[in-house]
Amino acid sequence: MSRRAHVPRVFVETPLAVGEVIELADAKRHHLATVLRLDSDAAVTLFNGDGHEYGARIREAGRKRMTLAIETRDTPERESPLSITLYQAIARGDRMDFALAKAVELGVTAIRPVFTERGKVKLEGDRLAKKQAHWQAVVESAAEQSGRLVCPPLQPAINLAQVLDEDAHADALRLMLAPTATTGLTALAKNTRMTLLIGPESGLSEAEIASAEAAGWQPITLGPRVLRTETAGMAALAALQSLWGDLAG
Predict the structure, then answer these.
(1) Which of 99, 143, 150, 152 has the fewest Cβ atoms within 10 angstroms?
(2) Cα separation of 90 and 205, whole Å?
(3) Is 154 helix (H, G, I), strand (E, B) or coil?
(4) pTM score, two decimals?
């Protein structure tokens, strides 16, 4: 088995360099010390999104404090050549967690939760803030477990109308899954920069699809069967990575 199978990986939001000693945030310390029961001298792999991963060892493992000494730096090739921003309609409970985790595993570059017309989840204020923090933990965990060298940014949730007004991705291939679409991915010209819009459990409304098309989004289909919202993004990302990215066929 590979080294990654034995050594836990931890995402940290701090600069890393060989020879330095860092202190872990409490949530990360709790996971290593209490859940995994690691003690002094145990090996840990760190990454912070700078394109490298760092081999470290636990120097101090106390009840309230854990420090790690960084020993090595490696630069494996694990990030996809594709830049894909996923706009995922907010789904209920575990469905959203599943969609986010699988998107990270499949190499997505950034994620933005989206409120849609037919979406069943209503969040605002403290409830939205707590849910956003929960989703962030899901994304970080998926990045750690899948061997990513970066943790895809999880952007604040917004309404679909705001997404369609944005011009940040004007130079990207903008794709949305739509039940009425007749164009498949293989009919599209290769592109390495794209956005992908996935609707909620009940699908995007006709008005939303029309507005998205008017804003330059291309309706696409993945085939004759209806996919659930947590499956659709995973299937589309896997297809894109297989066609143009680094997912071996």
Answers:
(1) 150
(2) 15
(3) strand
(4) 0.91
